[in-house]
């Protein structure tokens, strides 16, 4: 299997200008992922886990290091130096991100949010509708909510919708930032089932988890982060 992602000596520092203070969020982080692998990252809040994801997704620009990604369209590229236009393309077609939080689009229903994700991939209206319904049913989102605006949803319902919207695209690389936070056991099982299905289909994934039990027999490898560094690796 070829490497799909190689993070080399990644460092990120935040500057609090009014306090003239520098906070080192990441220090010399290195991670390799082969196609189809699922790597899990654990660690305390503030250890740098989400910062790694935001550098991959280019929400943050790292100070040092490279993030080599093997794109289906662009070939081998460094995400740390990619143009904004290229990054927008990758977010749309190749790299998915599941956050604990849902960025709600105004006057867009739950069904439309998932359906739009499929339409973005170039599928026709009928296929998009079928895929949206299948995904909403899988996560057992109450059918009465499908045509409602997510602003009224509970935290768990919003998270399930966020996961559905990202996973329905079957991205080449999927970043899962606490995908089971605020979910009940039945919903966690639904997430696990879909992760296992994506693994079988060859999707490469990185997941941040506090729920160690959820990770059992799911991850190819597990890392632990402490103070912005990868502290150990379990094979």
TrEMBL record:
Residues 5-235 form the ABC transporter domain. Keywords: ATP-binding, Nucleotide-binding. Pfam families: ABC_tran. Transmembrane segments: none annotated. This is Alpha-D-ribose 1-methylphosphonate 5-triphosphate synthase subunit PhnL. PANTHER family: IMPORT ATP-BINDING PROTEIN (PTHR24220). InterPro entries: AAA+_ATPase, ABC_transporter-like_ATP-bd, ABC_transpr_LolD-like, P-loop_NTPase. PROSITE patterns: ABC_TRANSPORTER_2. GO terms for cellular component: plasma membrane. It comes from the Bacteria. One of its GO terms (molecular function) is ATP binding.
């Amino acid at each position: 299997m070829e490497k799909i992602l190689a993070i080399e000596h990644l460092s990120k520092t935040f500057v609090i200008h009014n306090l003239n203070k520098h906070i080192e969020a990441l220090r010399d982080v290195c991670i390799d992922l082969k196609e189809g692998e699922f790597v899990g990252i654990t660690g305390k809040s503030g250890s740098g886990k989400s910062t790694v994801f935001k550098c991959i997704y280019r929400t943050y620009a790292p100070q040092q290091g490279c993030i080599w990604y093997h794109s289906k369209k662009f070939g081998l590229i460094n995400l740390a130096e990619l143009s904004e236009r290229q990054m927008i393309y990758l977010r749309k077609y190749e790299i998915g991100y599941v956050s604990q939080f849902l960025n709600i689009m105004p006057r867009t229903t739950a069904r439309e949010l998932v359906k739009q994700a499929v339409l973005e991939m170039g599928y026709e209206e009928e296929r998009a509708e079928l895929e949206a319904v299948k995904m909403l049913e899988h996560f057992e989102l109450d059918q009465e909510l499908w045509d409602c605006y997510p602003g009224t949803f509970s935290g768990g319902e919003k998270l399930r919708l966020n996961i559905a919207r990202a996973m329905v695209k079957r991205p080449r690389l999927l970043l899962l930032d606490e995908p089971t936070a605020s979910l009940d056991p039945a919903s966690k099982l639904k997430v696990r089932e879909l992760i296992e299905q994506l693994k079988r289909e060859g999707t490469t994934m990185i997941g941040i988890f506090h729920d160690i039990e959820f990770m059992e027999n799911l991850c190819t490898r597990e890392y632990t982060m402490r103070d912005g560094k990868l502290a150990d690796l379990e094979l």
